[in-house]
Design a protein that fits this description.
Length: 446
């Protein structure tokens, strides 16, 4: 624990009068195993370590980074950051984070089991996942992806302004994409199970999700165009939250590139919508004790009963806005801090997905979307993406459809949220998924 923090504090100890120095040190280890046709198609393992150093003198910022923690390299990197600061443009808001009195949450984000899990066991999990997918249904013709992946990372931040913070976390997951075929039609599904340790992974859940999601799309046809109520699959909701999180960045607001600009304390969603960024939640795979500047992570209320309460800030954007940092700085050792929407989640409702479908009666279930980042404008809020899913008929899932488009605006969709499901699940990609019911969305097909 102390090694990386010792490196960071050593570097800040080399500061000279008149300058602020920040050292961000990180180290990571990742493994990925991919099975194909009963054999290991690929196995990769990588370790990296590096440091990023910021120097601020008279409002001029310089930054440099290196992929080594050798003392000679550390000194060279510090000198490079100093040189870069000399050429920087003066900025009255430039400055390092300072302790704000908020204590880091108590979180246990690393399991000894993950550290010691042998490579052969990782291979066995990937192979077992592929076999399970192939055996689940006779219509499975192959498995496009069957992987086991894990990652462990640690970082430390020290500054001449009094910050000294250390953090670590680990996660692993299995993911499968089976191909199913019937009557000349081929469909693909995806399933995933994630945890802090391999023993927390559920291969049956991942397999069932992947195969069943593919099977139920067999025979899909293009739907008729109409306006109707949609139910978003939890995975689709998570993708939507990642876009909304970016638009709630104080940095984006200051640049005039957010659909939520100048809307604080206004109603931006239905009253059932409660949105937070909560990296203190131990269930979130994006949980952390500290942000990229060494400030404590904290729960940030963004939308409360439909009303916009505020934005996410790092130190720089907060100073520009005349606010305080929300502990939302994100970075790697090779980059300077920026605002990141960590662990975005909607407050779960009380009804299961089946109960939500029953309440809808007739509508459409959106299982997958495509073109989300090209079809959504975070400034205007325009929303138009490709969609695949199933019709909802009589309160249950019915005929599958494909080659469709759903369209609205994010502003309209948030105001038209009818219900949030109880099936909240954290995904390794960051946001939490949950079933979401939205009325009056345009479905375009034939």
């Amino acid at each position: 624990m102390t090694e990386l923090l010792d490196v960071a504090t050593t570097v800040t100890g080399w500061a000279v009068p008149g300058e602020e120095v920040e050292a961000f040190v990180a180290r990571s280890r990742t493994t990925s195993v991919r099975a194909y046709n009963g054999a290991v198609e690929s196995l990769s393992s990588a370790e990296s370590a590096g440091i990023g150093i910021r120097v601020i003198v008279d409002g001029r910022q310089g930054f440099a980074h290196a992929g080594s923690l050798d003392e000679a390299v550390l000194k060279e990197t510090l000198e490079e950051a100093r040189d870069n600061a000399a050429f920087g443009e003066p900025d009255e808001h430039a400055g390092l984070a300072r302790p704000d009195g908020v204590a880091g949450p108590v979180l246990d984000l690393v399991r000894d089991e993950l550290r010691s899990f042998p490579a052969q066991a990782k291979v066995d999990l990937a192979l077992e996942l592929e076999r399970a997918a192939q055996a689940r249904d006779p219509r499975v013709q192959g498995v496009r992806v069957a992987t086991f992946s894990d990652s462990y990372g640690e970082n430390a931040v020290a500054t001449t302004t009094g910050i000294a913070a250390y953090d670590e976390s680990g996660v692993c997951y299995v993911a499968v994409q089976p191909l199913v075929e019937a009557d000349g039609d081929t469909q693909m599904g995806s399933g995933i199970s994630a945890g802090r340790a391999p023993s927390e992974l559920d291969l049956d859940e991942a397999t069932a999700d992947g195969v069943d999601r593919a099977v139920r799309l067999l025979g899909a046809t293009q739907p008729a165009s109409r306006h109707l109520t949609v139910v978003l699959d939890p995975d689709v909701t998570a993708e939507l939250l990642s876009i909304i999180g970016g638009a709630l960045s104080g940095e984006a607001v200051l640049k005039g590139r957010s659909l939520f600009a100048n809307r604080e304390e206004q109603d931006v969603a239905a009253t059932v919508v409660n949105l937070v960024s909560d990296a203190t939640d131990p269930g979130a795979f994006g949980a952390a004790r500290y942000d990229g500047e060494g400030l404590a992570r904290r729960r940030v209320e963004l939308v409360d009963a439909g009303k916009l309460r505020g934005y996410l800030y790092d130190t720089y954007s907060a100073r520009r806005a005349g606010r305080a940092s929300t502990g939302s700085a994100a970075r790697s050792y090779a980059t300077t801090p920026g605002v990141g929407a960590a662990a975005m989640t909607l407050r779960a409702g009380t009804k299961s997905q089946a109960e939500l479908l029953a309440d809808v009666g007739d509508g459409v279930y959106i299982q997958d979307v495509s073109g989300l980042h090209s079809g959504v404008n975070p400034v205007s809020g325009d929303f138009s993406v490709g969609a695949t899913g199933l019709m909802i008929t009589g309160g249950v899932l019915g005929a599958p459809f494909r080659e469709a488009t759903i369209a609205s605006t994010i502003q309209r969709m948030l105001l038209d949220v009818v219900a949030v499901g109880s099936d909240l699940k954290w995904l390794p990609s960051g946001p939490a998924g949950v079933s979401l019911v939205i009325r009056d969305v345009s479905l375009s097909g034939s």
